[in-house]
Amino acid sequence: MRALCWNGVNDLRVETVGDPTIVNPHDVILKVGLTTTCGSDLHVIDGLIPSMEEGDILGHEFMGEVVEVGPDVKNIRRGDRVVVPSFISCGSCWYCNHGLTSCCDNTNPNAHMQEKILGYPTAGIYAYSHAFGGYAGSHAEYVRVPFADNDCFIVPETVSDEQALFLSDAAPTGYMGADFCNIHPGDTVAVWGCGGVGLMAAQSAYLMGAEKVIAIDRFPERLAMARDIVGAIPLDYTKVDIYEALLEITGGRGPDSCIDAVGMEAHGEGLEYAYDRTKQALKMHTDIGAALRQAIRACRKGGTLAILGVYGMMDKFPLGVAMNKGLTIRTAQQHGQTYMKRLLDHAARGELRTDFLATHRFSLEDAPRGYEMFKNKEDGCVRAVFKP
For residues 339 and 131, what is the distance between their CA atoms, to the nearest angstrom? Predict the structure, then answer.
């Protein structure tokens, strides 16, 4: 089959590779219908996530049709149209039973690679380095899905392929962030980043009862989406002082909750940004903390900070600011299985729009160009979608 492979930093090639096969009786093989880029992929492509190997297949956000079923799969049938969360959950360990599916104990065969740093390993995830399990990704004609009864969700007829696609990762990540905020009627929520996850977080905050949602970015087309499609108040951080603007909007109190949907490759300004960029380039740390630091400072006293962006090692984390203000900080990789039923219901009822994220479409053969446009945000690209 054909697949998009990582061959080194910023070296992506579409190659012919072996077809996936059933490895465990609980597996299925999926014919990929649609798969999309994600901001987290850029960390892999840029060499900020260690333990990638030459030839690894990229992609972790996808949907498609089941074409082969393992003998112990009970609820999924050949021909089912399904969406699959990016993190792999066994469905039976303590963490899965408590809804913390991205912390699953049983789906990362390379747990030892993470234990030295994290203490305890995360679940496995498609195409996110060998430290996260070494699973082949979805930017391919076919992909193996382990624990299919737990990880494949049948898509209702009223939900299109493109709507379902973003329920794999962007929507559950954003929805989880809003859920972390424990939103009450009348709350104001500020979201840093108007990419796929940030736009889903903003939309989810409204679904959960927020009165005002403020969307922070610097790209006019993304801010326009936040305003026109989601209904958020857009703020361009290159044109206004975000802290002062948030104080003005909230009557001097600050947002009740802040959501960081940016992560380790944040853009920023000034000496602090230059410091972060220099240390990242020298591999003295992995993270640029501009968005996260700003969110911590801006959040009201006693408020909630939800961190959805991917981070590694950061210098100058303002822990004292968070502690003295009494902030609640919640963060996780997305627990997609926990939220999927709700997300499918929202999508089927027209309450959650996701398909507008698909700004650019490519064949799998043109995937390297798609990633180039996505990474450089050319032509207003929010997400590049590949159809094998």
Answer: 25
Three-class SS state of 68: strand
Distance of CA 312 to the CA centre of its chain: 15
Cβ atoms < 10 Å from Cβ of 242: 21
3-state secondary structure of 384: strand
Residue type, 306: A
Q: How far apart are CA 280 and CA 268, in angstroms?
A: 14
Residue range 175-233, pLDDT digits in tens: 999 999 999 999 999 999 999 999 999 999 999 999 999 999 999 999 999 999 999 99
Give Cβ neighbours of residue 262 (< 8 Å, ≥ 6 apart): 192, 193, 198, 290, 291, 292, 309
Distance CA 324, CA 322 (A): 6
Pairing mode of beta strands 304-307, 257-260:
parallel
Q: CA 26, 104, 140 angle in degrees (round to 5)?
A: 55
> Angle at the Cα of 367 (from 101 to 19), degrees rounded to 5?
65
- State whether residue 31 is helix, strand or coil: strand
Q: How far is CA 184 from CA 192, 235, 295, 328, 329, in A?
A: 20, 23, 19, 15, 17
Residue entry with tokens 């391919």: 140
Please, which residues have CB within 8 angstroms of residue 203's CB and are 6 or more apart in sequence? 174, 230, 352, 353
Residues 132 and 213: their CA atoms lie apart, in Å, by 34
Q: Given this model, what pLDDT does residue 272 score?
A: 79
Q: Which residues does residue 249 pair with via DSSP β-bridges, in sequence order?
A: none
Q: Is the pLDDT of residue 313 over 90?
A: no
Backbone angles phi, psi at 221, to 5 degrees: -70, -35
Q: How far is CA 57 from CA 2, 80, 89, 152, in A?
A: 10, 24, 20, 20
Cα 72 from Cα 311, distance rounded (Å): 37
pTM as predicted: 0.96
- Neighbouring CB atoms inside 10 A of 324's CB total 10
Residue 348 pLDDT > 90, yes or no?
yes
Q: Which residues pair with 304 in a beta bridge?
A: 257, 328
Q: Which neighbouring-strand residues pair with 4?
A: 14
